[in-house]
TrEMBL record:
Entry protein name: 5-oxoprolinase subunit A
Self-association state and partner proteins as the record states: Forms a complex composed of PxpA, PxpB and PxpC.
Alphabetic keyword roster: ATP-binding, Hydrolase, Nucleotide-binding
Signal peptide: none
Gene name per UniProt: pxpA
């Protein structure tokens, strides 16, 4: 059994990036941009309404305040300020999730913040503090979605937040089980057959082949297919079909 998630709502104003409607017919969890790296109020409202209609779980995809860089640039944000910005993003999405008859079910960092909190304890603690601050409007502690072995999940688990491990079907991995930085060649996989085979291997066998060719153990409850890659919805359908053929049930973790 595994959850299938994708990043959605990554547009702004007249600019759109993700095929939200098509992806919401495939995934079981939607990581919705909350306005800091992408997204705006109308986009957030529309994605939440579609997700609620289709029974897809709504997650807050929080990030550094970086619209120009799509949240993928390294930034230095004081911990208290970052915690407030995390809480702010979750609260904003909760308004639209509630209006759609649903709720924010989990939190997932995006881009540079996601990678930063793999090893940075201070920033990880700030993200967790923000999740805790938002708990009052989210009916209690929210699960945190992140990379297995990351400081983020360790800190979250330490304060009693539920944690959910995640793997990426379309990203290259290092021997340490971390993601190859996007600035490096072949950090993102574009061959659909390779992505599908990797997804099945992760979900069924708990293994992924690292860049050096070594098998690396991956313990994941959720599998991400990026929504901003060309043909993302069709690829997600193929991944889901391959998982089903391998006897793996696709189901939300919340």
């Amino acid at each position: 059994m595994i959850d299938l998630n994708a990043d959605l709502g990554e547009g702004f104003g007249r600019w759109t990036l993700t095929d939200d409607e098509a992806l919401l017919s495939v995934v079981t969890s939607a990581n919705v941009a909350c306005g800091f790296h992408a997204g705006d109020p109308s986009t957030m409202r529309r994605v939440c309404a579609l997700a609620a209609e289709r029974g897809v779980r709504i997650g807050a995809q929080v990030s550094y305040r970086d619209l120009a860089g799509f949240g993928r640039r390294a930034m230095e944000v004081p911990p208290d300020e970052l915690a407030d910005e995390i809480a702010y993003q979750i609260g904003a999405l909760q308004v639209f999730a509630r209006a759609a008859g649903s709720r924010v079910s989990y939190v997932k960092p995006h881009g540079a913040l996601y990678n930063r909190v793999v090893a940075d304890s201070e920033q990880a603690e700030a993200v967790v503090a923000g999740v805790l601050r938002a708990g009052a409007v989210c009916d209690g502690p929210l699960p945190v979605l992140g990379l297995p072995g990351s400081r983020l999940l360790e800190v979250a688990e330490g304060v009693g937040l539920p944690v959910v491990t995640e793997a990426f079907a379309d990203r290259a991995y290092t021997r340490a089980g971390t993601l190859v930085p996007r600035r490096e060649p072949d950090a993102v996989l574009h061959d659909p057959e390779a992505v599908i085979a990797r997804a099945v291997g992760m979900a069924r066998d708990g293994l992924v082949t690292a860049v050096g060719g070594e098998p690396v153990a991956i313990d994941a409850r959720s599998l991400c297919v990026h929504g901003d890659t060309p043909g993302a919805a069709q690829l997600a359908w193929r991944v889901r079909g391959a998982l089903a053929s391998a006897g793996i049930r696709v189901e939300a973790f919340t």
